[in-house]
Amino acid sequence: MIAPHSPYPTVLPRSDVSTGVGLAGLAGLAAWILFCRSYPEIAAALGLGGSLGVERGVLSGPYAALATMLFTALPMVLWSVLVDKVHLRPSTGIDWSLKRPLAEVMPVAVIKLVGLWATWALIAAFYALARWYWSGNYLFAMDVLSFAIFPLVILSVPYVIWLDRVLVEPRDGAFHFGAFVVGGGLVGRDQWDGAAIAKHWRAWAIKCFFGAFMISILPPGFAQVVEAQPAQILGNPVEFAMLLVTLLFVIDVQIGTVGYLLTLRPLDSHIRSGNPFLAGWLAALICYPPFVLGIIGPNDQILSYAFNTPGWAHWFAANTALLWAWGGLLVFLTGVYAWATVVFGIRFSNLTYRGVLTNGPYRFTRHPAYLAKNLFWWASVLPFIVTSGGWLEPVRNCVFLLVVNAMYYWRARTEEAHLIAEDPKYAEYHAWMERRGLITAPLARLKRLLTGGVTPPREAHAFPAE
């Protein structure tokens, strides 16, 4: 709550996503990974031998990785609907008591379907033109999306009609873009709104770019986790730590991918707005392929921060205890990074506003994933220790990694500007963290000390909740 004469809340605002959602998804993911690892034994017990009597192996292929999304998403959806009852929230924009007649719904639904299909057609054209989508790991993503488009087109018809019967305002961005397409942009100007179309395309551009990327990186890490033999590397601190790091990245990618795909109003997980600031898009896209290529990376990039640096495993090789401790630190940082995704549940995605998170690691810092990721780079690379190049090489490494850190700080600030403009709750959360956040508050005080900023006043007593 906020006292009338103080802009600083004394109670942390409630999170729009409960802790149980992410935990349910994590349980489903763990169950599927265990099933895939145990499949040879399960197949043998059920008499499901391979062809020509060859024993079946573990399920580590790309489609097993893709199936993981189902086992991750379903528990999160069930928890969201049955426990959190998100479908009843006003933020969905749904009034389940409406039930408009089909005759009233169809004119708007048809235009909306035109807009939706036209959007997908333009995205498909973009994929076809962009060469990087047709090589390497992206080939798997293109196979998946090419197959998915046909059932999506078919299922979109009953879904849009059903949803429009209960939407408070069915004329959304898809409708406005459909009206634009039907009118050719030349007639019926009063039927579509340019701002609504821009908002629609910001959301779909995010899904287009990041959806393909996330699907493309699903298989490699999943295969490594399923095929791993932990017992064989338990005595090797480096290999064991890196296996745990890979597992945590798999958790992050799997739950994150579900978030990009399940943008549905009945689950209150729809994209309410995409970041409208150009700086926000630049700061985010520069961190991902193909834009990141040639800019950020360990070697032979503009911002190479690991030149002549063999890393932590090399420098600590003579001290087993230190290897275990440092490996534990890297696992911890990656765990924070994955935790920051897990607590999103089905709402994770870059550059979007889909509600406000205040639980999990977001109780301690507004940007736990960025903080953990950047600290991981420093701890794993150790850019200030090099094998050759004299004193200048470590200076270069540190300067360039600091530039990368600054890019993530810039990215964080653009995200904050977007969310503060969209939701007063985030402004409350931002102010609470500035004053009370375990990590954020000391950093904010240090920043004010260095810049001569104003210290926030002490909070007044909170009023009782109504």
Number of strands: 4
Question: Structural class, from secondary structure content?
Answer: mainly alpha
Number of domains: 2
Q: What is the overall shape?
A: globular
Count of helical regions: 17
Residue stretches low in confidence (pLDDT < 50, at least 5 long) are 1-6, 459-466
Radius of gyration: 24 Å
**Arrangement of strands in the largest sheet:** 1-4
- Roughly what is the average pLDDT, rounded to an integer? 91
N-to-C CA distance: 10 Å
Briefly summarize what is shown:
With 466 residues, the protein is mainly alpha-helical. The chain is 60% helix and 2% strand. The chain folds into 2 domains: 1-90 and 220-466, no CATH class; 95-167 and 169-216, no CATH class.
Can you walk me through this structure?
The chain has 466 residues and is mainly alpha-helical. The protein has 2 domains: 1-90 and 220-466, no CATH class; 95-167 and 169-216, no CATH class. Helix content is 60%, strand content 2%. The chain has a two-stranded antiparallel sheet with strand order 1-4. It has a two-stranded parallel ribbon with strand order 2-3. α3 (62-83) crosses α8 and α4 (102-129) crosses α6 (173-183). The chain starts with 18 loop residues before the first helix and ends in a 15-residue tail after the last helix. Residues 1-6 and 459-466 have low confidence and may be disordered.
